């Protein structure tokens, strides 16, 4: 999201769901940190979810820049 803000600050207004994805990503990142030592399977799932969020934002950014 920081890269999106740097390259295209107006992207959050013009692209639906980016704010929600950002909030979801931060929540999942916290879950991943908390579960890393005690519940590795949840930590692994959270890491995959974070990757999916990052891919979504990358696609939105690429489409905007094209």
Structure notes:
With 66 residues, the protein is mainly alpha-helical. It has helices at 2-7, 11-14, 18-35, 40-65. The longest helix has 26 residues, at 40-65. The two termini are 18 Å apart.
Secondary structure elements and pairings:
Elements: H1 2-7, H2 11-14, H3 18-35, H4 40-65
Helix pairs in contact: 3-4
Question: Helix count?
Answer: 4
The total count of strands amounts to 0
Task: State the order of secondary-structure elements, H for helix, E for strand.
Answer: HHHH
Model regions low in confidence, pLDDT < 50 over at least 5 residues = none
Strand content: under 5%
| Major beta sheet summary | none
Shape from CA axes? elongated
How would you classify the helix and strand content by structural class?
mainly alpha
Helical amount: over 70%
Straight-line N-to-C gap: 18 Å
Radius of gyration: 13 Å
Mean pLDDT, as a whole number? 84
Question: What is the compact description of this entry?
Answer:
By secondary structure, the protein is mostly helical. It is built from four helices and no strands.
């Amino acid at each position: 999201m920081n890269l999106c803000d740097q390259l295209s600050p107006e992207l959050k207004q013009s692209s639906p769901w980016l704010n929600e994805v950002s909030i979801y990503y931060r929540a999942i990142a916290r879950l991943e940190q908390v579960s890393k030592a005690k519940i590795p399977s949840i930590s692994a799932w959270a890491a995959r979810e974070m990757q999916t969020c990052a891919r979504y934002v990358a696609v939105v950014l690429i489409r905007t820049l094209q």
